[in-house]
Amino acid sequence: MAEIHGECENRFGEVRELLAASLAKDDVGASVAVHVAGEPVVDLWGGYADAARTVPWERDTITNVWSTTKPMTALCALILADRGELDLAAPVAAYWPEFDRVLARGCGRAWATGCWSRAPRRPGRWRTC
Predict the structure, then answer these.
(1) So which residues are the catalytic ones?
(2) For 18, left (φ over 0), alpha (ψ -120 to 50), or beta?
(3) Which SS3 state, helix, strand or coil, does residue 33 take?
């Protein structure tokens, strides 16, 4: 198992174990932080910041997180839908009128959160609504 640094409440011990297993097998380096009700319960890191495994991953190692906003936006939309505050079948324009006029005429909310809205328009790249 890889050496893991940081803090982790006992009830989240499996997170520490999974991070260590991932670093020992596939990943070069990584970190994970979890907050529950605004309080930090997991703040772990380990491995290396480079493919050659010469630079240790530190608590403040800067990394590109790629497309994490897409699943977070989808999760927020699903929470709102579960609360009855968002209709996934409604056109985006029902919530954001400018979207229909400028970006993707008639596009439904599910299409927009699924990255199929062609916004911004890129002909030939994405399906239309």
Answers:
(1) 67
(2) alpha
(3) strand
Q: Which two tokens stand for residue 122?
A: 């890129």
Q: Residue 33 pairs with which residues in a beta bridge?
A: 43
DSSP character for 48?
B
pLDDT tens per residue, range 24-64: 997 899 999 999 999 999 999 999 999 999 999 999 999 88
99: left (phi over 0), alpha (psi -120 to 50) or beta: alpha
Share of residues in the chain with pLDDT > 90 (%) = 50
Pairing of strands 29-36, 39-47: antiparallel
Reduced to 3 states (helix: H, G, I; strand: E, B; else coil), residue 69 is helix
123 Cβ partners below 8 Å, 6+ apart? none
Give the Cα-Cα-Cα angle 3, 9, 64 (nearest 5 degrees): 55
| Higher-confidence position of 124 and 6 | 6
